[in-house]
Amino acid sequence: MRPSLLRILLAVLLCCWLASSAAAATLEGVSLPDSYTVDGQSLVLNGIGLRSLTIFHIEAYVAGLYLPRPSHDAPQILASSEPKVILLKFIRGASKERVEQQYREGERNNCGNGECAPSDQTDFERLVAAAPAVSAGDTSTYIFTAKGVRVLANDRIIGDFTDRDLAYRLLSGFIGPRPPSPELRRGLLGLPAE
Prior knowledge:
By secondary structure, the protein is an alpha+beta fold.
């Protein structure tokens, strides 16, 4: 093969690979960035999933999980003190009351059997009180560090919590044993659909 033909072939293959990588960060017409920077460290998009509500599968948001390196192992991700990010981009709006209802449903599912520390309750209530109504296109971001969790609404901090157990419970609410939906959990973990 001639060197110039080989260069063209390599360039075409590289373009195809880059195009397929970009497509991996788009779901239901919603695009999420391929990386997210936390305290100077670049995290990669591990997986992307869709949250649907009710039996009618009303699309609520697309979420992405960002990690220092890809992983499909939820217990390992939850146990790690390395930074992690969950980024939600809303497909449809919801009232403040509906947003609060979703937080409380997650709390019931993940703490309903006395599994969460009572000391988490004050910070959880502060988070619920600070959570705003959302419109289509809005974002919510959960930045998990060894110190706790920082929560942003449309890139504005609404809470900074140094409660590591609360941070663990919030992340577990997405990728732990009782997520809002199995499809969302599989997507965030980069696992194939069933």
